[in-house]
Amino acid sequence: MSVKRVSECFVKPQHDHSQDAKQPIYLTPFDLPFLNLNYSQKGLLFAKPPPSENQHFSITTFLNDLKHSLSATLTHFYPLAARLATRKQQNPPSYVIYIDPENSPGVKFVHATVEVSVSDVLTSTYVPSVVHSFFDLNDVICHDGHTMPLLSVQVTELIDGIFIGGSVNHMLADGTSFWHFMSVWSEIFRSKDENGYIISRPPIFKRWVLEGYDHVTSLPFTHPDQFIDKTENGPKKQVVIKEKFLHFSSAAVSKLKAKANAECNTQKISSLQAVTALLWRCVTRARHQPGKSETVCKLITSNRGRVNPPMSNDYFGNPIGSVSATTTVEELMAHGLGWAALRIHEAVRNHDDAAVKSLLNLV
């Protein structure tokens, strides 16, 4: 089962940018740590309408509608159609990376086909290896956005379905921003009004910077070889890794949350923290590590609501951070679900405005 590429093209914003939209967007200390990491990849799987419901479905028409609505959407999300650019200086060493909205062919759009059914994808015990090929720009790192598109969309036609996969440069957008874009694209696609449609949530591109700091962040380098290591996140060695999705019913999650809170005599622990605590304990138990060894549970969190004043939920960028709960294997195993969940809750609670700004000061 191999994916066959049928065609590819580039899609630009439907309308010319305003003068403000042509200005460079400088990357922030939130964004720059992702220079050496791979693109973020997310996708949506749809079943094709059965012939009895829609005898006139045409993949050609569908793809054209996607391209036209994508072009209209990019008018609002123009940085996705941009490329990275760099301003360098030798003495003193300076390497300033920014998003250049003017010099780019646009967003890459790929049409592909594969002899796989929706059922093949959904009912497999593990994620089928072919799903990896439903995305473009595999093994590309974020710094490659100087020569690669910042967003590539691959539409893969299955036997009885459609998979729309997006690969986005993680320095440009986190998951919240990516799904913001996808939601607006969906709005415009369904409206069939590509010219006059007013989107519900216009994105905000003005960069958030620490008070008193320059909005231009300069790295103390003169060449990317000084900070880019492609052996770490480049083409992977032939190591077979099995992936699996775990599904928890709402009833099961509610029970876990109630159990975790009851064990700690609190109501603070969230559903996510309870489920994460369960996974942390299960994975640690399965690893059979020495009791005195350290075990860490790390969560990625959005910083939009953690800084003061808070950023808008429509801030388009990559303002994310990580929080960690740390203990020893024997201590984690000696206590119950609630104890582990409370450690996670405390790590999240302590990731406040002061913690975020303290970390940014170190970058």
From TrEMBL:
Keyword Transferase: yes
One Gene Ontology term of the molecular function aspect: transferase activity
Highest taxon, organism lineage: Eukaryota
Stretch forming the signal peptide: none
Name assigned to this protein: Uncharacterized protein
Keyword set, alphabetical order: Transferase
Pfam families named among the record's database cross-references: Transferase
The keyword Transferase is annotated on this UniProt entry: yes
